[in-house]
Amino acid sequence: MSWKSRSYTLYNKENEIAGKTGVYLKRRSTGILNPTFEPELTDFVIDATYGGRQQSQNSTRGYNVDDHKVSLETIFQRYESHPIEGLSAEGVRKNHAKFGPNVLFPPKKTSEIIKFVKNCLLGLNLLFWICGILSLVVYVVQYLTVEEEDRDDDNLYSGISLLVVVLVAGCFSYYQEFKSSKIMESFKTMMPANAIVWREGRRVEVDVNAIVVGDIVEIKYGDRVPADIRLIQCEGLKVDNSSLTGESEPQKRTVLYSDKNPMETSNLVFFSTSVVEGSGKGIVYRVGDGTFMGRNKFQVSIHDTKDISDPRYLLVMKGAPERVVDMSTAAVVTGPRLAEMEPHELDDLLINHEEIVFARTSPEQKYLIVKAFQRTGNVVAVTGFFAYFVVLGYHGWLPDRLLFIQTEWDSAAIQDLTDSYGQEWTYTARQKVGVAAQTAFFVALVAMQWVNAIACKTRRLSIFQKKMKNNAMNAALIGSPLIAFFFMHTPGLNDGVSLTPLCWQVYAAIVPFLLLTFVYDELRRWAVRVFRTGWVAQELYV
């Protein structure tokens, strides 16, 4: 199997065909950059303009305008306006019908009930619903046909547990979607209520939603720009573009064309930006969804900082995918992609990447990953027998006695199976100690994940230096053991999830491993701080 990387070159056909301009993507091969990435992209037109007038109505495409390049005479003719008189009443009506209102239209809304039902029923949740309902049906059949002493309540507990899990997961998913849907509403707060425009030679104040393309608009210090505007007059004008471009410093604006990129030229101001100094007047050339903010709203995502005192910068990159991927040290490999890889390709992947995420893999593929790690000289730990041995040994079943007795252990016909000390165990008693062993493994897993979360919180500083400032993480560290204990000690519920209370000796056996993990990682971080370069830093800085 050969890996290919593709890059894309932008070219303009304006010089080839007079009167017709367009920006297209053309594919070309650049050789192997990163063997973990193979974009499945095809040639397509981003946007096209004919005779300088935009033809595309797709709001998700690029912001391609030429209103900053053409002369003022051309732009006034284009929108049938006048630099002093402004638009006539007929011009306002025509431009409103032609270019639309100055309103950001949200995407078509789906009923909240339908959203909730989709989150609870569709996808993997549908499988959980089927399993839960089938478990309840089996229990009802047993209840009607089996004697009470022979009746098994496991199906009842399993069915209820599955339905509760799917409902909780569905509610959480719906809540996340509900929060995301509020992003669009936040744009309403960025729109000014009124604006000053010139119409039919008169200076009037109108509702911002009533502004149309071609209006002559006045802006001054303290105003929010009500639409995308080409400046025709200004005095010491500066605007804050941080909401659009991230530029922290106010940007000076003039009536002069300075750059072919509309976002860089000095003679344009954009909807939702703030005037921080001076005043100006200009002609509106884009309104509503046609503005730069209107296009940008389709690509919005919000990332909250967990620690507001964190002084670090977040680096965000965009551009040609293969260029970005080539700079990345982490790789994401999905199950379907892994199935297509040869063993030597997987080995090469493990050797050449410091961080790898395997997503949506099958159990068989997990075994292949383990074997690949072993082939490349790594030590792989995938066992969890110790917790079982502690519980079973506490009850009289030493490891040597447990070998090759699985069939006898699971047989309900054998009621006198002997342990390492000659004690006889019934089938029911064996099942109870088996549940205790499973519970011990579950508790050990929760405990180790708990200490691993603390160990992974910082890469170089000691946890005593960094301290525990992430409140969400602190809540999770407190909540996870409490949830585990709740399921273990709640009568009826623990039977449903096959958990049981444990004796203190089992907890005591887990503590040394927690301490060893914590102490080892503190020592690792200490070594990284002391030996900042060389072999030690290379091996221990993870």
UniProtKB/TrEMBL annotation:
EC number of this enzyme: 7.2.2.13
Superkingdom: Eukaryota
Single GO cellular component term: plasma membrane
Membrane topology designation: Multi-pass membrane protein
Stretches that traverse the bilayer: 121-144, 156-175, 376-397, 433-451, 472-492, 504-523
EC category name: translocase
GO biological process, one term: proton transmembrane transport
The keyword Transmembrane helix is assigned to this record: yes
Intracellular or extracellular location(s): Cell membrane
One Pfam entry name: E1-E2_ATPase
Keyword entries, A-Z: Cell membrane, Ion transport, Membrane, Potassium, Potassium transport, Sodium, Sodium transport, Sodium/potassium transport, Transmembrane, Transmembrane helix, Transport
A Gene Ontology molecular function term of the record: P-type sodium:potassium-exchanging transporter activity
Annotated coiled-coil segments of the chain: none
Chief subcellular location: membrane
Keyword Transmembrane helix: yes
Ranges of residues in domain Cation-transporting P-type ATPase N-terminal: 66-140
SMART domains with a match to the protein in the record: Cation_ATPase_N
Record-linked PANTHER family: CATION TRANSPORTING ATPASE, SODIUM/POTASSIUM-TRANSPORTING ATPASE SUBUNIT ALPHA
Description of how the protein assembles with itself and partners: The sodium/potassium-transporting ATPase is composed of a catalytic alpha subunit, an auxiliary non-catalytic beta subunit and an additional regulatory subunit.
Its job: This is the catalytic component of the active enzyme, which catalyzes the hydrolysis of ATP coupled with the exchange of sodium and potassium ions across the plasma membrane. This action creates the electrochemical gradient of sodium and potassium ions, providing the energy for active transport of various nutrients.
Protein name in UniProt: Na(+)/K(+)-exchanging ATPase
Annotated source species: Allacma fusca
